[in-house]
Amino acid sequence: LGELLQLQLHANNNIESVENWTGPDKKRHDFIFDGISVEVKTSQRTGLPVVKIHGLDQLKEPPGGKLYLSYYRVESVPAGGVTIPEIVEKIESTLSAVKLKEKLTHE
What we know:
Elements: H1 2-11, H2 17-20, E1 31-33, E2 36-43, E3 66-73, H3 84-94, H4 97-105
Parallel strand pairs: 2-3
Antiparallel strand pairs: 1-2
Helix pairs in contact: 1-3
C-alpha cells in the first residue's frame, strides 16, 4: 500500500514515474531516480514509527546519490477510508495504465 501511495505522489509530478518504481522488481530500493533512491516502509503500528529493514543493502545510498526513507502509517477503518483499487485508479488516471498493470502483475 505504501509503495502505491508513493507512486501516486510521484505520478503527480512525473508521468513516467512508474518506470522509477522498482519495488515489484525486488531491487534494493523501491524507487530509483537520477541519483536519488527512495525506500518505502508501511506500518499499522501505533506510537513511535518503527521500520523493518530487509538487509543492510537497503541502507546503502546509490553511488554518488542520496537515499530517502518514506514512511506511511495506515489503519483499517470500517468505512470512508481509501482503498487499494481507488489508489490504483488514481494512478492509472495519471500514468500509463498498461505500464502500471505490467508492474503490478509482473508481465
